[in-house]
Amino acid sequence: MASTSPTTEPSAPTTAEIPIPTPILVTPRCILRRYHPSDVPGVAHHANNPNVAGRLRPHFPSPYTLADAEAWVKHACSLEGKCGKALS
Question: What phi-psi label fits residue 81: left (phi over 0), alpha (psi between -120 and 50 degrees) or beta?
Fold first, then answer.
């Protein structure tokens, strides 16, 4: 009888395994590039400002959590060049 080994699904790449996207525009004050999973903490930090929420669409989450940032960055990364740029 042939032995069967359990099959495992490939794991998702870690943040360290995903290269930082090439910048689209570089100025002395900022860099414009596609989002990267490592942007999540910064997005959560800056979007959690009540002044940001107060000036955006009515359904912008406030407080803006790490889960909100993860969902946004995941969505933006899935847009394949249609949108989803980040300033750093």
Answer: left
Domain chopping of the chain, boundaries: 20-87
Question: Does pTM surpass 0.90?
Answer: no
Alpha-carbon distance of 51 to 2, in angstroms, equals 64
pLDDT in tens, 26-85: 999 988 888 889 999 999 999 999 998 889 878 889 999 999 999 999 998 888 766 666
b (16+ CB within 10 A) / e for 45-76: eebbeeeebeeeeeeeeeebeeebbeebbeeb
